[in-house]
Amino acid sequence: RILNIKETMEGVSMAAGLCTNRKDSEEVDMAYRIEKKIQLSAPTKQLFPGPFPEDFSLMTTVRAKKGAQFFLLSIYDDQGVQQLGLEIGRSPVFLYEDHMGKPLPEDYPTFKKINLADGKWHRIAYSVEGKSVTLYLDCQKYQSHTLLRGDTPVLSTDGVTVFGTRLLDEEVFEVGMKNVKGIRNVESAFQKTLSHEGESPFRAQHISSLIMFMEGGLGLLHCERCIK
């Protein structure tokens, strides 16, 4: 947990998470409620001691304030160029820029007709494979877009990884976060769980217990359902 959020921080408190009632479990999901601008960062090399993987997936569970628009996660190179950005809001952009400056900003994949900041809980996953990025929303494949990156794309690990708003953003955001455990990868070749209950087929890690990163793409997603 290199980017470690604690409820003792100013503007951070605990709240009920996505599921307050699960089958065969008395545990209640807990979430971090972030009510003020907060920005945590760490050298990217601490998260990725080796090269940043070419194909990867990011997963999180989030409830954002209605109308919010912000970057939950950003990775910068040592020159301050944002290489990767996970945006929350209406028609979110998947920001990705390799070492050759590809794709250009006007070609960033945009997931239109969707609002990730509607005041409701959402399970969100992005999977990057080859020259394609796919958004999974609430455990269902939502959209795939072309990712016009180079043939051998590189993302530098010489900069910093930031949880919170982008370095130049001044907008305050409010968001509740749930730990990503309970989201499973059931890709037929492995049939392994991504939670701590089993061994992951990919190199997986939690960033601040809030965002899961995996090397490789996603197979099918199976999510535990809440009891209404």
What does this structure look like?
With 228 residues, the chain is mostly beta strands. The protein contains one helix and 16 strands. The chain has one helix spanning 44-47, and strands spanning 12-16, 30-34, 40-43, 56-64, 70-76, 82-88, 94-96, 121-129, 132-137, 140-146, 160-163, 175-178, 183-185, 204-207, 211-215, 221-223. Strands 1, 2, 4, 8, 9, 10, 12, 14 and 15 form a nine-stranded antiparallel beta sheet that branches. The longest helix has 4 residues, at 44-47. Keywords: Repeat, Signal. Residues 1-186 form the Thrombospondin-like N-terminal domain.
The general outline is globular
Number of helices: 1
At CATH level 3, the topology is: Jelly Rolls
Q: Briefly, what CATH class?
A: Mainly Beta
Structural class: mainly beta
Helix and strand string, N-terminal first?
Answer: EEEHEEEEEEEEEEEEE
Attribute tags:
five-stranded antiparallel β-sheet, single chain, 37% strand, Collagen alpha-1(XI) chain-like, TSPN-like_N, Jelly Rolls, nine-stranded antiparallel β-sheet, signal, 228 residues, Laminin_G, repeat
Summarize the structure.
It comes from Erpetoichthys calabaricus (Rope fish). With 228 residues, this protein is mainly beta. The protein contains one helix and 16 strands.
How are the SSEs ordered, and which strands pair?
Layout: E1 12-16, E2 30-34, E3 40-43, H1 44-47, E4 56-64, E5 70-76, E6 82-88, E7 94-96, E8 121-129, E9 132-137, E10 140-146, E11 160-163, E12 175-178, E13 183-185, E14 204-207, E15 211-215, E16 221-223
Antiparallel strand pairs: 1-2, 2-12, 3-11, 4-8, 4-12, 4-15, 5-6, 5-11, 6-7, 8-9, 9-10, 13-16, 14-15
